[in-house]
Amino acid sequence: MSQSATQRNFTIEDALGELSSRLTAMNPKSSLRQLRAEAHMPGGNTRTLLYYTPFPIAFAHGEGCRLWDVDGHDYLDLVGEQSAAIFGHSDPRILDILQKVGREGLNLGGPNQYEARLAEVVCNRFPSMEQVRFCNSGTEANLFALSTARAFTGRSKIMAFSGGYHGGLLTFPNGPGPLNVPIPTVLASFNDVSQTHDLLERNAADLAAVIVEPMMGGAGCLPPAQEFLTMLRHSCNRNSIVLIYDEVMTSRLGPSGMQGRLGIQPDLTTLGKYIGGGMNFGAFGGRRDLMERYDPRRPDHWIHAGTFNNNVLTMAAGTLGLTEIFTPEAAVTLNESGDRLRAMLNDAASKRNLPVTVTGIGSLMNIHFARPPIATPTDLAKTRSALKSLLHLDFLLNGIYIARRGFIALSLPIGTDDLAYAVSTFEAFLDRWAELILDEA
Ligand code: PLP
């Protein structure tokens, strides 16, 4: 225990214990649900990210940007289903089209009226995607994009970045995750121009693809340095390496995603999350000469199968979502409001001279307990996750749902009053725990 912790007479463990006990007392049904779930699912869990201590709060329903848990408390939802619920939980236009399409019949087993229209809308919105194919998740999209690059180039290796996340079988926490697909991977450091350039040039003859999130999302919302991504583009061009932008999370950061903001065209782009209107979704697409290898009329075509690739609910809700709700104008407005929120949160911390930094771009952000700069996964190593747990519990007790890792994704129904409430709750948190934050961070 440090000197000031002794003077304070409580530690971070005490603080976590206090908030956990209050949460447990208030949520008997969530607690019981967890116990029951443990009987048939390891850890009572089927999606690792959703587990946290003492047990995850289970939700009964959602409306707009609000969630109700099984014990009857309501929350302002700042997780937005890890960025997939951009339309909120009950947009009437989405619910209407789902009902209409449902009445037309599910699982028709042939091409339908919707998939070509969604393809057109996606390609118009992200001009580097000359052609696109749909699948069921961001993970699947990345697997197909990487396999496309490997088959096209005849090379085996890929380059990815430490701390990067491209799906459950493509995780790179501190090296390739143990469950990763067995693709030989050269790992580089995000935003480190010279190290990455060296590695790229040294391995160029074997590299099929470089896969990069144009803002590292899951790692903690680390914006890219423009010169870093420009270097990747040039190096990939020079060495005929396929540059893949994983825009599963970042496509919402501008009318044409991060690639539009940056003015850089990748060879392939992967999409997921909200683009299916809130239904299961994934897509990969890009340069015509790569994508046309999937044309089934070619005698040497590659096979891209998937029972639900053109699921009518996803295709119809996705088209409506992109054309009538998350329009290019809506993308600009939502990201501006994210920029304002991030500025207000950073302001609250700097006024109190506390080691807290909120990183991100537009509507995606992450609260970290460390002073700036936080630009690389190495900088993240100095942040304290116990304080993130404290913040998460404190917010839950005050009716705000954020991700335990401090991640926030805004959705369209969130209003200025909601943002003001988030800021005042954050300020109260900083005031209450200032000593602990100073001591621990
Ligand atoms: N790529 C990125 C950047 C992501 O953030 C995610 C999910 O969070 C994925 C890929 C995987 O997408 P999915 O969960 O749909 O498989």
Topology:
Elements: H1 3-8, H2 12-26, H3 28-37, E1 59-63, E2 66-69, E3 74-77, H4 92-104, H5 115-125, E4 131-135, H6 138-153, E5 157-161, E6 185-188, H7 193-203, E7 207-212, H8 226-239, E8 242-246, H9 257-262, E9 268-272, E10 282-286, H10 288-291, H11 312-325, H12 328-351, E11 357-361, E12 364-368, H13 377-380, H14 385-397, E13 400-401, E14 407-409, H15 416-440
Parallel strand pairs: 3-13, 5-6, 5-7, 7-8, 8-9
Antiparallel strand pairs: 1-2, 2-3, 4-10, 9-10, 11-12, 12-14
Helix pairs in contact: 2-14, 4-11, 5-11, 7-8, 12-15, 14-15
The structure holds pyridoxal-5'-phosphate.
Short description:
The chain has helices spanning 3-8, 12-26, 28-37, 92-104, 115-125, 138-153, 193-203, 226-239, 257-262, 288-291, 312-325, 328-351, 377-380, 385-397, 416-440, and strands spanning 59-63, 66-69, 74-77, 131-135, 157-161, 185-188, 207-212, 242-246, 268-272, 282-286, 357-361, 364-368, 400-401, 407-409.
Structural commentary:
By secondary structure, this protein is α/β, with parallel strands linked by helices. It has two domains: 3-86 and 328-440, Aspartate Aminotransferase, domain 1, CATH 3.90.1150; 92-325, Type I PLP-dependent aspartate aminotransferase-like (Major domain) (Aspartate Aminotransferase, domain 2). 42% of the residues lie in helices and 14% in strands. The protein has 15 helices and 14 strands. α4 runs antiparallel to α11, α7 (193-203) packs parallel to α8 and α14 packs antiparallel against α15. It starts with a helix and ends with a helix. The structure holds pyridoxal-5'-phosphate (PLP). The site of pyridoxal-5'-phosphate has 16 residues, from α6.
